[in-house]
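Summary for the lay section of the report: proteins are chains of building blocks that fold into shapes. Here we show the chain for 2,4-dienoyl-CoA reductase, NADH and FMN-linked and then a coded description of the shape we predicted for it.
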Amino acid sequence: MSYPHLFQPLDLGFTQLKNRVLMGSMHTGLEESNDGFKKLSAFYAARAKGGVGLIVTGGFAPNFRGRLTPFSAQFSSSRAAEKHKVLTQAVHDNGGKIALQLLHAGRYAMHPLALSASDIRAPIGMFTPSQMSERQIQKTIRDFANSAYFAKQANYDGVEIMGSEGYLINQFICARTNVRYDNWGGSYQNRIRFPLEIIKAIREKVGADFIIIFRLSMLDLVEQGSTFDEVVELAQELEKAGVTILNTGIGWHEARIPTIATQVPRAAFSWVTEKLKNKVSIPLVTCNRINTPEVAENILATGQADMVSMARPFLADPEFVNKAEQNKTELINTCIGCNQACLDHVFKAKRATCLVNPQACYETELVLEPSDKTKSIGVIGAGMAGLSCAVSLAERGYQVTVFERNERIGGQFNLAMQIPGKEEFKETIRYFTNKLDHQNIVVKLNYSVEMDELRQFDEVIVATGVKPRAPQLEGSEHPKVIDYQTYIKNQPTLGQKVAVVGAGGIGIDVATMITEPENQTLDTWLQDWDIDKNIEFEGGLKPQDTYKPTREVWLMQRKKGSIGKGPGKTTGWIHKRTLEKRGVNMLAGVEYLKVNDDGLYIRHNEEVKLLDVDHVIMCAGQVSVNELAEALTINEINYHVIGGADYAGELDAKRAIRQGVELASKL
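The coded shape description reads as follows.
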């Protein structure tokens, strides 16, 4: 077996997990939607069938005031227990185990009934919470215990108590949010009474043969967070109180440090779990940016943890575990950590899914049924839209030929994977490369297809992508000017002063690329984000170092307002903060006048200015490449246009891949 540690069973005494893989909690949006539980059961069933050892649901509130929003999911009654049996049955029928996560939002609640340890509003909060009274504290403890009891009645194998990420329990633990003077505040021993009393009450209610996972914030990444010694003390007390498994939590939601985005190195925080490894005797789970079997196996083999938690990788590929066990890792659709279709959707109250796997959370709707027809289909373009459509069509049983005018597949992802922090994008190209081969799809590279050849197909898919928009700027032919594709492909040597025209996703990527420090490692990344690896400082944050930029860069956009809003909600701030730390000058409301030997002339705040730059990189958008439509129409060939060829807009792989799968499901 290639991954012996990953597939070693874990004996918990009263039960056994078949492997060391925990599917971490993810809110999907199905929890609250009409007919959502039918769809959610299909979602969990696919992951259980795919080999996951233990699944943890998205968070359910133990009472009304603990809801994240007024309409968020709650689990606190026998009626709820009955409703949830469809989920547990679906998982058990497919050989898996499942735990219900109980989460009280505390001051993160987006409603005026928010409660917390103290009446301190969160930096990301909408409402100032009320300080919980003694009666409310005792009731909340009982509510957690009752919810756990009902979870057992619903045939859950256990519960996970959310004690990290800055939610209510975490708010009691840390001095940052707990300024009480009673028995629930003040000393650290008083502040940790709340989680300990919750665990004791749950264990008393559910008995000994029920899994209790506690999500422990081991690295808060906020001021006035816990020190390592305090984390150890709480972990040991939780073990005494009856916790079965300790799961690692990294960072509060209000922390201004990235923890799960693609810019974060793989397994960037497994060292945190390892520090606690010999302090308790119960199993420890590590998490965050573990997206391949190799990374997971190395963590377990080196003794950093007893289990690994992966969440988004199971959106990307429900068969992740089975493929690893069957030595088919080349066919794993790897999570690239983009957040664009999962977390970004959830924060907009939309259903979660996955950029690289749009069938995630749509298992009952976006179905690739085997076709009873024999069709021959030509796909023109091997970017993300064309590739997703081609492999989906082949899955339905169609004969597919892909034509690509370049020497390799991947389209814009060949550019994206060269951006520092987006190296994961090459995994998607690797996945599609192997799928094309595995499904015996004919691929013709460096190939310009002729109309006579296209007449042989029953259907033609046009997925010819985009090209950079020609700049409407005096002096655009000057040697100083480079378009973004040329720069990323060839990476010519740049001068010490560079202007980036256009601050959308592409502009931000280019600005990141030209300011990236050399020889970046995990340790230097942690240092750049002021993370204290010894956790000697509260919250694991050390005093900030002063960054010395190696190049002077201007990042500009025409429209007024904040720069950095183009990328997703959960990652845009990371890009902007990175560029701020690197001293990039960000200007909005800029009119570009001309480029000459002197540099770039602009008008900003009604004043003409000269930026004496050595180079100007144009990131001013793109236009569709769709030169075949007219000829296909004239020749009466059935065709469909998808991806960038359909609409250029902002480069959007999420839309392109989904369009490909949706079209394939309908043909």
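Put simply, here is one thing we learned. Residues 10-312 form a domain with the TIM Barrel fold (CATH 3.20.20.70).
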